[in-house]
What we know:
The structure holds 2 protein chains of 2 kinds. Chain A is mostly beta strands. Chain A is 0% helix and 54% strand. Chain A contains no helices and 11 strands. Chain A has strands at 4-5, 10-14, 19-25, 32-38, 45-51, 56-59, 62-67, 72-77, 86-93, 100-101, 105-110. In chain A, strands 2, 4, 5, 9, 10 and 11 form a 6-stranded mixed β-sheet that branches. In chain A, strands 1-3-8-7-6 form a 5-stranded antiparallel β-sheet, with no helix packed on it. In chain A, strand 4 and strand 5 (45-51) form a beta hairpin. Chain A is globular, with a radius of gyration of 13 Å. Chain B is built from no helices and 11 strands. In chain B, the strands form 2 sheets. In chain B, strands 2, 4, 5, 6, 9, 10 and 11 form a 7-stranded mixed β-sheet that branches. Chain B is globular, with a radius of gyration of 14 Å. Chains A and B meet through strand 4, strand 5, strand 9 and strand 10 of A and strand 4, strand 5, strand 9 and strand 10 of B.
Amino acid sequence: DQQVKQNSPSLSVQEGRISILNCDYTNSMFDYFLWYKKYPAEGPTFLISISSIKDKNEDGRFTVFLNKSAKHLSLHIVPSQPGDSAVYFCAASARGNMLTFGGGTRLMVKP
Amino acid sequence: KAGVTQTPRYLIKTRGQQVTLSCSPISGHRSVSWYQQTPGQGLQFLFEYFSETQRNKGNFPGRFSGRQFSNSRSEMNVSTLELGDSALYLCASSLAGRGPGANVLTFGAGSRLTVL
């Protein structure tokens, strides 16, 4: 039973355009959501997070949107840069440090 | 500030052997968690330690165990290795306190285990 799903295994975007990565969850107990970026041979790197009491959080080029009624969150990257090419994981937690991860989306930003 | 350090980075074992992986968290971080990453199952939670006590446990068999020392360093052990245990094992640490950012995990680079 996958509680966190990223339905797009890959996404290709032109440099300078917007990248939108999506994530769906099923567990209503999740109250904190995070996005991580992962390069090959490295551990995941924290990007941005959002609490369930908010619907938007912004940090530079990265914005995360949370739609609790739809149990959906998305990560927007504007403008996309070639260095953003990596695998992006969304993760969720319910009152603790145990994170449930989605399967990841490979983002490719073309110059 | 030093990041999360995992050793060894790569290792090869044969079926039936056991392995111990080590993790040194960021200074001041009291919680250490372990995750397994495989191509088929993605990132899966193994366990979390806080103040030398296992606080959460994922859905893995008893062959997977861990511990945390008084300096917050952690080890995980896998006994009677199986081919399916081949994976990237990631350690992560966090402040584990209250307030924003307490749940943000900082990951190490991982230990890649190959079981032959």
